[in-house]
Amino acid sequence: MQKSFEITSSSGNYQVTIGKGLLAASLNKHASAVILIDDFLTGVLPADEKKIIYVTAVEGSKSLEEAAPIVIKLRELGAHRKTHLLAIGGGIIQDVSTFLASIYMRGIPWSYLPTTLLGMVDSCVGGKSSINVHGYKNLIGNFYPPSEVIIDLDFLRTLNAEQMIGGLFEAAKICYARSPSEFAAYLADAPSINMSPDQAERIILRSLRSKQWFIEIDEFDQKERLLLNFGHTFGHALEAATEFRISHGIAVGIGMIVAEEYAKQQTLLTPTGIKCIRQMTSHVETLLHKLPEVAKELRSLDIDLLSEKFDNDKKHLAEQYRIVVPKNDGILELVQVPRTAQGRANIKEAYRVALERVINIFH
Amino acid sequence: MQKSFEITSSSGNYQVTIGKGLLAASLNKHASAVILIDDFLTGVLPADEKKIIYVTAVEGSKSLEEAAPIVIKLRELGAHRKTHLLAIGGGIIQDVSTFLASIYMRGIPWSYLPTTLLGMVDSCVGGKSSINVHGYKNLIGNFYPPSEVIIDLDFLRTLNAEQMIGGLFEAAKICYARSPSEFAAYLADAPSINMSPDQAERIILRSLRSKQWFIEIDEFDQKERLLLNFGHTFGHALEAATEFRISHGIAVGIGMIVAEEYAKQQTLLTPTGIKCIRQMTSHVETLLHKLPEVAKELRSLDIDLLSEKFDNDKKHLAEQYRIVVPKNDGILELVQVPRTAQGRANIKEAYRVALERVINIFH
User: Fold this and answer.
1) Which of A246, A345, B32, B128 is most buried, by CB atoms within 10 Å?
2) How many CB atoms lie within 10 A of CB A112?
């Protein structure tokens, strides 16, 4: 069973296809493509593939400094303006590929095959890249969607518990941001780390169709799409402060708990709103329980460093922090917090309470 | 007297304004902008400007390797998503600014003030960037037009003969590519290195309005716009083989003579066509006569190296060279030449005859 739908973008529409066994078909279709692949996945390619660029899926690979050697490899493999790039991997591979495909000879066509659940439920659509520069996370990037997204469910077998949970956190966040009924439907699909491929397909499709609404209404991240940063601004600081030992998806899950605590502290929520966001954070806590190593990281975390990393986030404005929090009946809003000593202290307190909550899951 | 018109682009329209004394007005309008400026032009800025990034206008500055330090400077100057970038300089400053404005925090708004004639008559519209990687010229780039182009004619006073002539070659090329009547009108404006500001304004306006036709009909460089590469593919090899001692505009002028020689060699032209292209190359020769140092460069040039540099141009396809040459009655066409020993020899012979012609101007 194969499902497919189309995403509209200013630089051309692209097809998203979900199913099993799609990698082989893709390699066939793009026989003369250059393949850019996570070096962890070497085994999935037939032995006769020749034009391959291996990238290690670590944070340092998605940096401006590492872009030049890959550009040179493309050139050495004879890539020209009509060469197709086939990118196979998770978020880091996607960031690198989006950026490189957009700039190589002013843009070459490319296909993306996400291999992580996080890539499948979220980042594979939207066309954004995020690239680090000298340790500043995601300081640069751009918009350059692939000409097709191919989600091969067979890759789910290669993932560990942390990767599955990170992906579910992003899917949960997107459905929550879309509407209460989408989030209820997401929970009804019984998301877990032991999902069947059919279950996974339903959850991926639900998440992507929800995200589609945001990216078609706000392709360049000016308004509605900013709500998808729910959990992210709080989460990025967690990633940075632990030198990425807490991975992106997990950080987003914890970030949503921080957002809940901030909303409660500032009494932004009605009783309905408290119940609504609690459904989300209960789900996050249930899944986090499978990852005791997270509690260990959080116990040794310096909260001043966390606060400093939060302060450095590029999403803030000169005079205001910008965070996404649930308000009123639980609906997400982009909120501006003054960058004053008091504002900083409130944020820090929300972190403190949230981290304590997460650590306590494991007691 | 100030003239202005609008260019249509998929990422938003932008205004082009030509006149005198426009720099001061721009600095006023964008009081909190970060200024990226050719370090040769330091003197044009008021002493109280604080947020300035100086870039040396040499080929090495428009490289992927040099992008990271400028990104970091933007960050250190506090640039955020809404920060305006004011770019002041010639083609290299424009390439660097287009690239950086497009990737910094996924794109910030920017204005461009071209300071060379070449920038004013040609590159300031179109939104393209060309960036070098490890010595591969223009291997990467993208499309990201500024939100406004401001042509301050006062900058013409800062230019030397070579810079004026290079600009005129590009203007001549654009008008020629547009139509025989545009080129006749260009010649009727009596272009020379001693033009008055009014004359310069007329020539700049004519050239930009001609270029506008190409970029609005073919923004992403797929078809019509490729004709603007007239003189360029032959010219790039000249720049590369002389390690850029022959500058871009001058190389384009000589490149048009090479194209004429190739067309004659292959008998692609009617008698009318020969007369038509001869008008262009006579104009080029007349202006080149002011630059005896060019002949000196050409005399010591290794034609095998030139041929090799031509062979390496990224615009070629795997099996064909792609060049723009005048055909029939002198109209430009994108022509494919087989990448065979014979094809290579023909190209080399066209170079040889053309260079001899240019050297003979000075006898």
Assistant:
1) A246
2) 30
pLDDT tens, position by position, B95-128 = 999 999 999 999 999 999 999 999 999 999 988 9
Which residues of chain A make contact with B82, given a CB cutoff of 8 A? 317
**Which tokens is A308 given?**
């400093």
Identity of residue B47: A
* DSSP annotation of B328: B
Q: The tokens of A111 are what?
A: 């296909």
Nearest-Cα distance to chain B for A106, in Å, is 4
Q: How, if at all, do strands B34-38 and B85-89 pair?
A: parallel
Q: Could you tell me if B152 and B102 are in contact, meaning their C-beta atoms sit under 8 angstroms apart?
A: no
Residues of B with CB under 8 A from a CB of A: 10-11, 64-65, 67-68, 71-72, 75, 78, 80-82, 99, 102-107, 128-129, 131, 133-134, 136, 139-143, 220-221, 314, 316-318
Distances from the Cα of B99 to the Cα of B84, B87, B143, B160, B228, angstroms? 14, 12, 8, 27, 21
Task: Evaluate if residue B61 carries a pLDDT over 90.
Answer: yes
Q: What is the DSSP pairing of strand B52-55 with strand A136-140?
A: unpaired
ipTM of the assembly? 0.83
Closest CA to B241 of B312, B161, B316: B312
Contact residues of A toward B, CB < 8 A: 10-11, 64-65, 67-68, 71-72, 75, 78, 80-82, 99, 102-107, 128-129, 131, 133-134, 136, 139-143, 220-221, 314, 316-318
Which one of B102, B134, B139 has the shortest CB-CB distance to A105? B139
**Alpha-carbon gap: B225 to the closest alpha carbon of chain A (Å):** 14
Which strand (E) or helix (H) includes residue B143?
strand B136-143
Q: What is the pLDDT of residue B135?
A: 82
A142, B82: Cβ pair inside 8 Å? Answer: no
Residue A79, CA atoms < 13 Å, CB-side half-sphere = 32
Best interface-test mutation with A: which of B70, B82, B139, B218 has the largest number of A CBs within 10 A?
Answer: B139
Nearest CA in chain A to B78: A318
Nearest to A65 among B11, B68, B316 (CB): B68
- Residues of chain B in contact with residue A75, where contact means CB-CB under 8 angstroms, are 133, 136, 139
Two tokens at A197?
A: 């491929």
Residues of chain B contacting residue A318, judged by C-beta atoms under 8 Å apart: 78, 80
Cβ neighbours of residue B342 closer than 8 Å, sequence gap 6 or more: none
- What are the tens digits of pLDDT across the range A216-252? 998 887 888 999 999 999 999 999 999 989 999 999 9
Q: Two tokens at A179?
A: 């509407």
Residues 6+ apart with CB under 8 A from B245: B297
CB atoms within 10 A of CB B325: 25
Predicted TM-score of the model (pTM): 0.85
pLDDT at site B38: 96
Q: Which residues pair with A328 in a beta bridge?
A: A269
pLDDT of residue B59: 87
Residue A231: phi, psi to the nearest 5? 80, -15
> Cβ atoms within 10 A of the Cβ of B309, count?
17
Which residues in chain B are closer than 8 Å to A220, comparing Cβ atoms?
106-107
